[in-house]
Amino acid sequence: MSDRIPDLLADLRDVAEEVAGYVDAWTERQFLADRGKQRIIERTLEVMGEIATRLGDDAPDVGADWRALRDLRVVLAHAYHRIDARRLWQFASVDVPALRDAVADA
Asked: Can you give the pTM of this predicted structure?
């Protein structure tokens, strides 16, 4: 395991907490009605995907779908015009907390 893995996992937890804070502060309706809020979530999820990319094969086996997170980063960075805000909310409100919890003790 690379010596940078603990730092990357700490960064991932921090960004996941940031996403959770946004989700807790907004309703889905507020999120869907506000392009600025959507951009904030897009960017923070993109950062999480970049961290997953940097973890690569050293990502801990904690039941997280690392490939999906890496793929999401690619979509957010390159197919930004095709982002479905409802799916983004779903990922931010369900998948991110699960990932945060999965890496909590990694």
From this structure: 0.90
